[in-house]
């Protein structure tokens, strides 16, 4: 290292040469860094990479399945539907709406224009893909859980997940056996079906303190919108579409249910941005949507039983 005297009396020319050497050394190092080999992500590069990957995927599938992946084949239609639905979802998200809305509109349009039509084994494949999408959404919701809070509330989570489900399954089994005359196995099967619906929407990420604090708000938010939507749809379908009151009420309960595919991603987005964490907004919405679905499913089952009943309506209810 140079002494202070040498540094003080160094000529400007030698200083400029040293600066040039250091800049050249930095340029060489930057060329060898991974950030230079892998440039920063930009929208044109992202779209170009996605297009190349899709072409490669189509080429591999065409090599394996030939006519099924041809432009008129069912797998090509499915791949084209996936691409258009994804693009429509991204455009819808720019309008601050759930991407699922754009995907649903795309599927409805392509199905009604006759582009997307599946038969045979591909119907089961589409159903499997739908179930896989729901599993991915629920896994994504689980990845957003706080591990520390989950360990701290582990016993409460277990009680909140299993005790209501088992109690409802046992209650449905007893009621269906003694009032409807079902066998114990059929009653237990009916109760397990209700338990599966609740387990899918199990609030493993709920805050127990916020749930106790907002219990009355949860009940109001769960039942009032569901009943209001069912009544509104019933009135509109009766006076505008000519439906009977029971069929209108049945349609109202169908449309009044809350979809977790819309609620969970929106809550995850708000949770990542830190909105509503101190007020328990995510806990409120998840709990209310679960009870809302239970109310809608129960109302649908009751109205459906009344429509196709052959005995007393009280027994069906």
From TrEMBL:
Record keywords, A-Z: Membrane, Transmembrane, Transmembrane helix
Membrane topology: Multi-pass membrane protein
Subcellular location: Membrane
The Cation/H+ exchanger transmembrane domain, residue ranges: 173-312
TM spans (from-to): 45-65, 71-88, 100-123, 129-149, 156-178, 184-204, 216-239, 245-268, 280-308
InterPro entries on file: Cation/H_exchanger_TM, CPA1_transporter, Na+/solute_symporter_sf
GO MF assignments: antiporter activity
One Gene Ontology cellular component: membrane
Primary location recorded for the protein, binned into one broad class: membrane
BP-aspect Gene Ontology terms: proton transmembrane transport
Classification via Pfam families: Na_H_Exchanger
Family membership noted in the UniProt record: Belongs to the monovalent cation:proton antiporter 1 (CPA1) transporter (TC 2.A.36) family.
Protein name (database record): Cation/H+ exchanger transmembrane domain-containing protein
The organism of origin for this protein: Timema cristinae (Walking stick)
């Amino acid at each position: 290292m140079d002494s202070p005297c040498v540094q003080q009396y160094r000529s400007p020319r030698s200083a400029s040469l040293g600066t040039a050497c250091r800049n050249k050394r930095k340029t060489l190092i930057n060329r060898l860094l991974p950030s230079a080999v892998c440039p920063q992500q930009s929208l044109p590069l992202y779209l170009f990479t996605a297009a190349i990957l899709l072409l490669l995927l189509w080429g591999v599938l065409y090599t394996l399945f030939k006519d099924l992946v041809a432009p008129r084949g069912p797998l090509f239609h499915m791949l084209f539907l996936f691409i258009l639905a994804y693009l429509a979802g991204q455009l819808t998200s720019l309008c601050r709406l759930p991407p699922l809305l754009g995907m649903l509109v795309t599927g409805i349009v392509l199905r009604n224009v006759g582009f997307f039509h599946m038969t045979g084994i591909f119907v089961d494949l589409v159903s499997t893909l739908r179930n896989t999408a729901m599993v991915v959404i629920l896994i994504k919701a689980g990845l957003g859980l706080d591990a520390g809070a989950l360990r701290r509330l582990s016993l409460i989570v277990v009680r909140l997940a299993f005790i209501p489900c088992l109690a409802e399954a046992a209650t449905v089994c007893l009621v269906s056996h003694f009032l409807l005359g079902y066998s114990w196995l059929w009653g237990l099967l009916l109760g397990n079906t209700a338990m599966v619906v609740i387990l899918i929407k199990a609030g493993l990420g709920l805050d127990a303190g916020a749930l106790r604090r907002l219990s009355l708000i949860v009940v109001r938010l769960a039942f009032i919108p569901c009943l209001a939507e069912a009544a509104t749809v019933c009135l509109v379908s009766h006076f505008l579409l000519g439906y009977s009151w029971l069929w209108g009420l049945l349609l109202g309960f169908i449309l009044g249910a809350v979809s977790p595919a819309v609620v969970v991603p929106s809550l995850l987005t708000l949770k990542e941005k830190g909105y509503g964490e101190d007020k328990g907004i995510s806990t409120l919405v998840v709990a209310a949507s679960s009870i809302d679905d239970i109310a809608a499913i129960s109302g649908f089952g009751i109205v459906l039983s009344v429509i196709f009943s052959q005995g007393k309506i009280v027994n069906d209810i």
